[in-house]
Each structure stands twice: as structure tokens, then as C-alpha cells.
Structure to design on (225 residues):
């Protein structure tokens, strides 16, 4: 199976950039996703990147993919207190029938 | 993307009772739906894959007789936690398979078993 690892915690000051990292073992996913989960809530799709891309920018979000190192990152520019949440990377199998979720990174934004 | 709802959003029940959780795909016909559970401060773990009109496929370690899944239509899958115990308390999230490598997630149902 797939092992998807993330750092558990990240704290940043409001206005700074946040970088959340994700490493994985199986590189067969066509798309790689980032989800946000606020306390007590479901998953919100933030962004995704196609596996043949190295970078994708979407407003304050930048996704970097290093397939050689099997490393995915999410950068949030100008981090705001509303960005405080848990962030999950998720990799589907080629069949699309199963998502492997990372362990989740809890982002705390300090005012 | 598809809009997915879950009902109820929060349920408290007594130990030994059964609880049914509904997952509805509001604007998308879903042949395949998925059920996940999430313990506090942990990641999502896939419980089962629910296929319309056929039996669900359960992940290793998930008791199929305890977690009954019914996917009788293209818009509704239900998860019934039978004879619930406090250790079944968790956040249950369903998702709908969209295109290749795409899933749309419901808002989750928080189950508390007293």
C-alpha cells in the first residue's frame, strides 16, 4: 500500500508564508490533492496538481511536485488566521477507487 | 464538482443501539461511493467501497456485519453501525467517485456512543 507522511504540526505568524510538506511511496497517482479540514467539519478540496506538472499556482496557494523525490508541498502565501486548520494531502490509486490520505498537518496561525 | 450531503451531521446514541448514516449525492449519479472514518486528531481511513446494486467491499479489519452498507440507488448510500459501542465513536465521512481519480466528500457525521 501507499505510505503518505506529513509533519503533524506547523505554526506561523499571520502574514508569513506556510509550507506544508507531504512525502509518499507510490508514484502512480495521476492527480495529487490537498484538502483542508476545519475543526468539526468535513473536507474541503483546496487544490490539486496533475502528476506531469511540477508546479501549480492558484491565488495564494502554490503546489510543488517533485516526482523524483516523491515529495509534494503546499505553500500558502500571506497566511491568515482563517487558514488555521488541518491540511491533508491525498493520493488516489490509478484505479481511482481508493484515496490514501496523509497523516494531516495542523496549521496554527498566530495573530 | 458533485454536491454530497450527509445526514445526520451529529448523532448521540446509547451503547447497543444501531445508527444509520445517510450519504446523498445531490447532483451526480454515483455508481461508487466510499465510507471513511476519522478518529480525533487522526487521518481518514477508508472503511469500505460501496457499489450501487451490489455488495460493498470492505477494507481489512473492518467488520462487515457491524458496519452495514447499502447502496440501493445512484444517489444514496447508507452506513448502519449496528450494536454501537463507545469505541465506534468517530467522524464518518462519505465520498462520491467522480471522474478518474476524483472524489467528492460529504461534510461528515459525528457519532458519539454513550
Amino acid at each position: 500500500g501507499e505510505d503518505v507522511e506529513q509533519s503533524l504540526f506547523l505554526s506561523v505568524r499571520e502574514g508569513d508564508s506556510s509550507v506544508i510538506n507531504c512525502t509518499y511511496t507510490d508514484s502512480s497517482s495521476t492527480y495529487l490533492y490537498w484538502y483542508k479540514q476545519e475543526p468539526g467539519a468535513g473536507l474541503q478540496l483546496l487544490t490539486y496538481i496533475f502528476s506531469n506538472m511540477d508546479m501549480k499556482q492558484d491565488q495564494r496557494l502554490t503546489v510543488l511536485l517533485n516526482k523524483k523525490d516523491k515529495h509534494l508541498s503546499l505553500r500558502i502565501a500571506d497566511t491568515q488566521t482563517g487558514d488555521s486548520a488541518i491540511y491533508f494531502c491525498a493520493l488516489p490509486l490509478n484505479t481511482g477507487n481508493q484515496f490514501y490520505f496523509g497523516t494531516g498537518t495542523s496549521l496554527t496561525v498566530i495573530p | 464538482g458533485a454536491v454530497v450531503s450527509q445526514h445526520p451531521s451529529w448523532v448521540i446514541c446509547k451503547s447497543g443501539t444501531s445508527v444509520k448514516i445517510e450519504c446523498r449525492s445531490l447532483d451526480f449519479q454515483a455508481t461508487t461511493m466510499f465510507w471513511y472514518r476519522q478518529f480525533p486528531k487522526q487521518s481518514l481511513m477508508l472503511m469500505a467501497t460501496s457499489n450501487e446494486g451490489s455488495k460493498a467491499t470492505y477494507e481489512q479489519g473492518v467488520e462487515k456485519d457491524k458496519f452495514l452498507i447499502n447502496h440501493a440507488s445512484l444517489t444514496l448510500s447508507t452506513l448502519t453501525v449496528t450494536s454501537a459501542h463507545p469505541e465506534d465513536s468517530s467522524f464518518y465521512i462519505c465520498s462520491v467517485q467522480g471522474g478518474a481519480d476524483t472524489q467528492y466528500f460529504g461534510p461528515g457525521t459525528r457519532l458519539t456512543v454513550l
Remarks:
- The interface with chain A takes residues 1, 6, 32, 34, 41-46, 49, 93, 95, 97, 99-108, 110 of chain B (CB under 8 Å).
- The longest strand of chain B covers residues 44-51.
- DSSP finds no helices and eleven strands in chain B.
- The two ends of chain B are 36 Å apart (CA to CA).
